[in-house]
């Protein structure tokens, strides 16, 4: 089969790779119908140590079940399935608590013997706990929106849930990438009346307005902080969703959060230390939360709105390419020519 591997910063190749096969009785093999490139894939694209063997790529995909192990009970051959970006057994204590990203028998794509989703097929461990079957055809117009449930929609929703967004909360979302935009949509769904989106790309912020943003702040740094505070009578917002992962975004979050408020981080942090002292978080009683979204936990909640057309999170995809063109897709996203790239396997 053909699969995407990254060998060094900026070096993405689509190569021939072994076809996946059932390795354990709880596995499934999924033929990928659509995958995509994530903003978090750009972090190794900028900084990964060179690897002569390459690293498989991709953690978001939907597809058709081609084979199952002997102990798989809830998934059948021929099912169209959504694969969350972490695989999990669905039965351990963490899974039962809705934290599948900490599953005692789970993991993440592209680790160990488990390969990635930017490929023609994937071996899925713990198929019963991981995969969600959906009654749609593989040519359904809903496919892009269903694919967002693999990661970015669930991650945006997780950010809002961890921030405790509700009808009495104001929200600032930092970052106009796919996760930030779907955090706007999620905050709107949870009842937020004021949603300030901080972003500089008009096409993206226009989509943010469509998803429910009430205000757009294009400025960054101290100017951006001042603009948000002007919109909130000097206080800042109850919740700040940081959907970027770089230190300037964290510093901006600290600058616009209201005393007693919450910063919810879902941008993969590209730093190991950050200010949390008296003058930043401790003194004003700020809660810091977030982390990798247990996307599997949110699919049952978010799926009905996608299926009935109430929401259309698939609008974050603004370019579709063939698997062979994935290297160009990475370049387009890195150059901000594309918001999020959909990949036909």
UniProtKB/TrEMBL annotation:
<dbReference type="GO" id="GO:0004022">
    <property type="term" value="F:alcohol dehydrogenase (NAD+) activity"/>
</dbReference>
<dbReference type="InterPro" id="IPR036291">
    <property type="entry name" value="NAD(P)-bd_dom_sf"/>
</dbReference>
<keyword id="KW-0479">Metal-binding</keyword>
<dbReference type="InterPro" id="IPR002328">
    <property type="entry name" value="ADH_Zn_CS"/>
</dbReference>
<dbReference type="Pfam" id="PF08240">
    <property type="entry name" value="ADH_N"/>
</dbReference>
<keyword id="KW-0862">Zinc</keyword>
<dbReference type="InterPro" id="IPR011032">
    <property type="entry name" value="GroES-like_sf"/>
</dbReference>
<dbReference type="InterPro" id="IPR013149">
    <property type="entry name" value="ADH-like_C"/>
</dbReference>
<feature type="domain" description="Alcohol dehydrogenase-like N-terminal">
    <location>
        <begin position="26"/>
        <end position="132"/>
    </location>
</feature>
<dbReference type="Pfam" id="PF00107">
    <property type="entry name" value="ADH_zinc_N"/>
</dbReference>
<keyword id="KW-0560">Oxidoreductase</keyword>
<protein>
    <submittedName>
        <fullName>Putative zinc-binding alcohol dehydrogenase</fullName>
        <ecNumber>1.1.1.1</ecNumber>
    </submittedName>
</protein>
<comment type="similarity">
    <text>Belongs to the zinc-containing alcohol dehydrogenase family.</text>
</comment>
<feature type="domain" description="Alcohol dehydrogenase-like C-terminal">
    <location>
        <begin position="178"/>
        <end position="290"/>
    </location>
</feature>
<dbReference type="GO" id="GO:0008270">
    <property type="term" value="F:zinc ion binding"/>
</dbReference>
<dbReference type="InterPro" id="IPR013154">
    <property type="entry name" value="ADH-like_N"/>
</dbReference>
């Amino acid at each position: 089969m053909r699969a995407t591997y990254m060998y060094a910063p900026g070096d993405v190749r689509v190569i021939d790779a072994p076809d996946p096969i059932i390795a354990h009785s709880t596995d499934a093999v999924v033929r990928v119908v659509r995958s995509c490139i994530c903003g978090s894939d750009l972090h190794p694209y900028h900084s990964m140590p060179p690897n002569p063997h390459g690293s498989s790529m991709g953690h978001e995909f939907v597809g058709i079940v081609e084979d199952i192990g002997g102990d798989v009970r809830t998934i059948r051959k021929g099912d169209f399935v959504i694969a969350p970006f972490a695989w999990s057994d669905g039965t351990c204590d963490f899974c039962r608590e809705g934290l599948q990203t900490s599953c005692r028998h789970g993991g993440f794509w592209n680790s160990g013997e488990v390969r990635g989703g930017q490929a023609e097929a994937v071996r899925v461990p713990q198929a019963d706990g991981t995969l969600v079957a959906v009654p749609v055809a593989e040519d359904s117009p809903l496919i892009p929106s269903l694919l967002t449930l693999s990661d970015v929609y669930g991650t945006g929703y997780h950010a809002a849930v961890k921030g405790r967004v509700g009808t009495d909360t104001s929200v600032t979302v930092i970052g106009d990438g796919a996760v930030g935009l779907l955090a706007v949509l999620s905050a709107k769904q949870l009842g937020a009346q004021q949603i300030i989106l901080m972003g500089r790309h008009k096409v993206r912020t226009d989509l943010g307005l469509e998803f429910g943003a009430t205000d757009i702040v294009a400025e960054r740094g101290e100017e951006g902080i001042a603009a948000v505070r002007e919109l909130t009578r000097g206080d800042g917002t109850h919740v700040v969703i940081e959907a970027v992962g770089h230190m300037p975004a964290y510093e901006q979050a600290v600058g616009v959060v209201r005393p007693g408020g919450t910063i919810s981080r879902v941008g993969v942090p590209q730093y190991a230390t950050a200010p949390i002292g008296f003058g930043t978080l401790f003194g004003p009683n700020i809660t810091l939360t977030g982390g990798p979204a247990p996307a599997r936990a949110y699919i049952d909640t978010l799926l009905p709105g996608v299926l009935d057309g109430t929401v259309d999170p698939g609008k974050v995809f603004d370019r579709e390419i063939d698997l062979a063109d994935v290297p160009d897709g990475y370049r387009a996203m890195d150059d901000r020519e594309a918001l999020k790239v959909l990949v036909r396997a």
